[in-house]
Amino acid sequence: MARTSSFLPRPTVLLSLWGVLVFAASAQTAGIPSDMTLRSDVAEVRVTFSATDRNNRVVATVQPADFAIVDRDRVVRDFRSFNRSEYTHMDVVVLVDASGSITRQFRQELSHVVQLIAGTQGMPGESFSIVSFRDQKPAMVCDGNCHELFPQAKVPVIASGGSTPLYDSIVFASRMLRRRSDLHTRKILILFSDGGDNISLKSFTEAMNSAVDNDVAIYSVDVSSQPHASPDTLVLRSFALNTGGRYFPIEAGTGKVLEAILEDFRATYTVAYKLPSRAAGFHQVRILPTHDLGLQFHCRHGYYYPSHTEN
Amino acid sequence: MKRSLLLAVLLSALPISLAAENRAHQQGTIVRMRMTDCMAAQHPLMQALSGSNRGPSGELCPEYVLVTDKVVYVIIGKTSDQLVPLAETTRFHFQNNEILIRVDDSRRESRFHVKAMMLRPEWDRHEQIEEAEATAAEHHHLEGAVMVDAHQ
Description:
The complex is a heterodimer of chains A (311) and B (152).
Chain A: E1 13-17, E2 20-27, E3 40-52, E4 67-71, E5 74-76, E6 81-84, E7 89-97, H1 104-119, E8 127-134, E9 137-142, H2 146-149, H3 166-180, E10 185-193, H4 204-213, E11 216-222, H5 231-243, E12 247-249, H6 254-266, E13 269-274, E14 281-289, E15 296-299, E16 302-305
Parallel strand pairs in A: 7-8, 7-10, 10-11, 11-12
Antiparallel strand pairs in A: 1-2, 2-3, 3-13, 3-15, 4-5, 4-14, 6-13, 8-9, 14-16
Helix pairs in contact in A: 3-4, 4-5
Chain B: H1 2-23, E1 26-37, H2 44-50, E2 60-67, E3 71-76, E4 90-95, E5 98-102, E6 109-119, H3 120-151
Antiparallel strand pairs in B: 1-2, 1-4, 2-3, 3-6, 4-5, 5-6
């Protein structure tokens, strides 16, 4: 009969889920008597976030005492570690809705984005791509080398008109970012859209899951003419809120968007805490202030903790 | 005469002292927080009779579990943006069957319905059972993994 003390050391299970890392490790201590079994079981959640004040300015002086984490309704104040994130690179994909809602201002703003990204000195080691989407599927305009292809910051001609595969395109761009980035690269999706979708095979939820699962922050730029009255605006806001990005109406100007991206890049934090509940399924994560309600924390909205049979 | 005067003074002072006690701040710690259906604004009895505690608008309100030395309160806000800071210590007091919490930078106190109450030992026991069940399930899983490894 097999003895439980003779089991092999189990590998560390590393789960990188929805931008939140859950580390679960099962370990056995070697050299113990054969009739004894020692087990150590540790699970840790890591969350990356940024913070803004009530004037929507990035806060670069966040301390552990400034916030608490709500993980599946449990409040966590004891953190195992807290530090500035170790992002050293940035990978930016500009996702352009070319489905027919392009206005003159939109073209100007897109041109401005290209110009800013091409000219900025503030994005370390960045890769820059443009993907447009209309009709059936997204199309790559330039892949990581937009600086070289458009050195004069000229906006490439993007064919417009047709239907809007927004959700499919977000899934496409998220997977693309995941494929070519590592843990030290902040993955940014700047989405120029009115939030509408009328042809995607993927759903809103699948698009959201894809972005969060691949650790992609979406910065939504709402190009609709009435951004505050449209349900589609909620879609764009939701993408930004739940992926740790931000939402901007196009009137805000793309300079603001780039500024926010750079601020978030420079003032991003990572906090680690003990898994508060082993309940299988989705763990919604929120970061809330402990004293200043004007502080807003931006992070991905949760992770999946697998059931025992999935481990 | 003196006795009746003294009695009158005492009787008149009683509501004041009760009110003062009611105003006395207690402190506790918020250990859980979630967004849930807002409680209807109607009277609790009417609410119970109607068999529904769902807010008319389907709005979500913050619900907190506030743990004190002796009692654990489940409190719920009246609006979706009625958030309180999740500090280690939350100071509160009662008024008209509601819990009032002052937020540091707010002039007014925030009012919360008391949705449920539980004695602290009962709450602790409930928590321990929940934790033990989770641990047992985890160990059961590990045992299964051990046996699989051993057979391999």
